[in-house]
Design brief:
Blueprint (H helix, E strand, L loop, with lengths): L1 H19 L25 E8 L5 E7 L4 E8 L1 E8 L1
Antiparallel strand pairs: 1-4, 2-3, 3-4
Length: 87
């Protein structure tokens, strides 16, 4: 039975090595990536981050849009985090 195990192991090893030794297809390198164009309305924009902590005023978790601009406001308990883009 030991000879059968060695034969099976050798057969499996030969099969695995033949799979690994196959031809390697090299894909050509992609052309140099061009930078993504920023929309014109965001060229002169400045991101702003605001964090507000109000220990006496609790609110339920919510995500809303920032008034008068692009961005989001996340409110969770006494913490309010606002990320906006202003010109």
């Amino acid at each position: 039975m030991t000879a059968a195990k060695k034969d099976l192991r050798a057969d499996l090893q030969a099969d695995l090595l033949s799979d690994l030794a196959g031809p390697v297809d090299e894909t050509p390198a992609p052309p140099s990536a061009q930078p993504v164009a920023v929309p014109p309305e965001l060229n002169d924009a400045t991101p702003a981050l605001s964090v507000q902590w109000t220990p006496l005023r609790w609110s339920r978790p919510k995500v809303t849009t920032v008034r008068g601009g692009l961005g989001k406001t996340v409110t969770l308990g006494p913490l309010k985090v606002e990320l906006s883009v202003k010109e």
